[in-house]
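Final report, closing paragraph on structural work. Over the funding period we assembled a curated collection of sequence-structure pairs, and we close with a single example.
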Amino acid sequence: MAARLTPPIRFGIVGLGTAGTALIPPAVRHPGFTLAAAADLDTGSLAAFKNDFPDAETHTSVESIAASTQVDALFIATPTQYHVGHVLTALRAGKHVVTEKPIATALADAQAMIAAAKEAGVTLMVGHSFGYETPIQEMRRIVASGELGPVRMVHNWYYTDWLYRPRNPEELDTALGGGVTFRQGSHQFDIIRLLCGGMVRSVRASTQRWDPARPTEGAHSVFLDFESGAVATAVYSGYDRFLSAELGYAVGENGKPVDTSKYGAARAALASRTAEQENELKRSLRYGGARNRGVSLDYPPHLPFYGITVVSCERGDIRQSPDGLLVYGPDGQREVTFSKESSGRDQILEELFAAVVEGKVPLHDGAWGLANLEVALAALESSRERREVFLNHQKAVE
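Its predicted structure, as stored:
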């Protein structure tokens, strides 16, 4: 087992796209971390990063940053098809790793990562960021307290414009980890498993492709049956028509207001662009790009809504409000509000810090990421074969 680190943890980011950029503010805010390095193939993104963080290293390969003696832990934020190679390179170099979700596209690849982390004696985590958000964690706390009795049903429904936002080709290729079941179902399954105890017994699902120009899953309906007897649904549509923010106080997954009056805006904007223009727009969202907002340490005005999440226990229900939770108990309704001075991504680093400095076993470890991946793969298989799929690699919430 690798020795526990003495803070600050020297943190590096592999991939300066949207996901990699999003973890920079938490790394800057957390007193137990220092932003030590970044790696990317885009020289413009690296130059912008170096300008903002002159004391940090820059690298053009995962092999180079993994070999650095100035880096203790890495966030792998590269496209999903590269996760297995990049994560294994980092683990075998003795680095602690947080990888973007999904952990991989095949169970065998996830298992190889878990085995490599164990052999190297380092921490492997999967950053399902929305499961770390305060409303979900507080829902989990209320369920665990027993105040409302055992959890019986959980539903997460989310309608967005996901399919028509600027996309790289691999994001629209299911074989490479694209489509909403891999990309967004990963968040839904993580949230639902956290709230229902983790142990999914079986999955029955229908995944949908409605637009030949975007040839991947754009919608799904997934029914999860838990060993405990609890049941859940994960419903997602990224086709940019009805937006569930209309039912969620017009608050989005970033905690900022959503303008629901602009019907089909993403679809309309995409229709006027060529494939190369879409690629250019996607590149402009990278670190240092024209449409990238850079590093802000400010928190949003509301807690984030990852769609509509409703938890039903034997003696009450729970759902979100803009500033906390609405709890419908046996004797009445109450609102519980929370501080907005923490994000899900802040909590990813908090869990990583506790693992590598304090020796605490993280919940969102490789085995947890493997279990979420198993649900996604089962949903795709169930839809393809029109049958119930039973699971074998689930992990209970400790």
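The radius of gyration is 20 Å. The chain is about 35% helix and 20% strand. We thank the funder for supporting this effort.
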